[in-house]
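Pair request: fold both.
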Amino acid sequence: MIGQHNNNGFAILLKNPAIPIRHPTLLFTLRPKIRCMKYDVYGIGNAIVDIITEVDHDFFTKNEVEKGVMTLVDEKRQLHLLQASDMKKIKMSGGGSAGNTVVALNQFGGKSFYSCLVAKDELGEFFLKDLKRNGVDTNLTHEQCPEGHSGRCLVMTSPDAERTMNTFLGVSSFLSPEHLDAEAIKNSSFVYLEGYLVASTRGLEALKEAKRIAERHKVSTALTFSDPSMVKYFSTQMEEIVGASVDLLFCNEEEAMIFTGTKTLADARQKLKQVAKRFAITLGANGALIYDGDTFIQIEPYKVRAIDTNGAGDMFSGAFMYGITHGHSYAEAGKLASLASSRVVSQFGPRLQPDQAKAILGDLIV
């Protein structure tokens, strides 16, 4: 690369497809928020309680489970898999892709709102109490919840740290436009749309309506593809959500190539520029690639021993959006997101504890 550095250590691109951001040279400074809004992020997504367990590689073959992706299943199928797994190793956690993201943002010091749907059952109460404990606002109360079963996801973690998810949506599949809060959307810097919702007709309409309200009130829209299966099997629905463009897109390398119909990251990133004003492509152990609307920025990874990759992408999105809504550059936000996601994969479960998030900021702030 031909480049030079300013006093802050940032590489100034002269002629190169991406600016590499190396950890020793990029420091994180406290800055004021860009916009004075009530919420940094308004999220909409499935309300899911994660049931996390460890399984061997042969578990997938024995039980005919597609490894490494999220699969929607009915309650009977999920209960069968639960019984087939080691119940002694099971842990329970609040989950859902966008739910994990808004909780992460709050733990770093942001403020978020979450639209979702749970049932009037024990898991639903558990989920709502978890949101409250993490300071996430919602327009849903347990008393208002419908009868039925709340959504739950069996997260099977294999020895290679890969997560395989079998999800029973329960009443979350009935999330619809009526569950949106237009006032909260209007008072947010970003609306964050969970790609998993495209699998439901009502969920798809809720995403469309949330995006319409956001655009009407000049609120930025962010979308996560969520999982390769969503892009592969619901490509038409995903294209409907993307529409002419989104302001910010989150995806991994596989999702980027599936959506764009390309075979290389280099081709995928060029095509994504046609549908997203800015985007972040996570690259697993290779870090991330960010496009800030002008320049490609390569974010180097933090080397850790991965134990469980469940929630890594959600954490990346939450930390990244905290950064950009609190005055930080895309490069700085990418550094924070990279460190935060590296910490979450080095433990079981999709979330950090609040003190862990504060410690991460402490490691970066100068």
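--- second member of the pair ---
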Amino acid sequence: MKFFSFFKAALNELRKNSFRSLLTMLGIIIGVSSFIAIAGLIQSATVIIKSKIYTYGRNAVSVSSEGKEFSLQDCGKLKSYIRDIQFITPVHFAPSLSAKYKNRHIASRVYGASNDFLLIRDWEIVNGRKFSDIEISSYQKTVIIGNTQKTVLFGNIDPVGKTFYINGAPFRIIGVLAATGKALSGRDFDNKIIVPYTTMGRNLAGKSSFSEILLSVSGSEALDSTIGSIRRYFSQAHNSPLNKLKYIKIFTSREKLDSAKNVIGILALLLSAVTIVSVIIGGINIMNIMLAGVRERTKEIGIRLAVGAKRLDILAQFLIESSLISLTGGLIGIVIGLGINITVVYIIGWPFIFSVFYVFISFVSSCIVGVLFGMYPAHIASGMIPVQALYSS
């Protein structure tokens, strides 16, 4: 029962000085709202970054050469040599070729690859079809275009079956890829054209060898063993010891994801440090205001002690007041932080991720701050000698 009476008294005290109480809470509100907003945005950013990286391929491995280039036979031999390989394709790549339809044109990224390229990258064809074996083997000028090419060159017209030009050469469109959006850097993932690797080698690249092989494995646990097997294969194929194969570069989607996670982790640590400082400043502010409250209420404390109140009662009274200030500030901060998070992700088009864990951490932290920074003022108040308290007032 005492707790409820103390709680009611603390609530009345805060209401009596509502404006001062709000200013006291301000540091906690800023700290907690910053933490909730930042944590939510980091979670949303993580989801977005993962989705962007997975457009590269969920368990993809890129093998490139800065020396001797690869042949089509390398792809077949690698798939036979490494059982974990699911899909594999040779890749030609041109970063900027002119694509034109009537009086419209766009600089396009052009890939020469097989149908496995689409499976590795998890690119979905929403209109049309993939390449036929005959189109690949007979060097036919057919293409699958990205959503950007569809929008810029054809607008509302169905592009499937239409003929357009890449660097002046006519190509027939057989498919359109689903939109995948943009990278955080602003790079357009939908600006792409896929051509059969045979056709691109003959008509656009001017060579039959490749500087890149792209493959995917059955699971992330197979990535390390696959990388080792790839190095051993090329060591045998090129008759070169492993330590001389520095011109063979191997990258995986996991490395890209790990790099992104490291950046996010560092950013989270920096922003969390700022948030912790804000909460500590808020706690110090609570302690200062509570100390001022103790001085203002010296006579009240003296009277209560004189008529029989226990020092533990005085201690509890002031601890409940400081905790209530901190907890209220924390709850307000949680609401404001969620509001900021929802608003920002809505504006920039990110998914909203609600985390019970971060809300719980904020709630508990507010309670702890209230108790820790209220302990000293409560101790001062409970340690007063009744006669001196009444005399000093």
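Observation on the second member. Strands lie at 60-65, 85-101, 104-113, 125-128, 142-145, 163-166, 169-177, 193-196, 212-217, 248-252.
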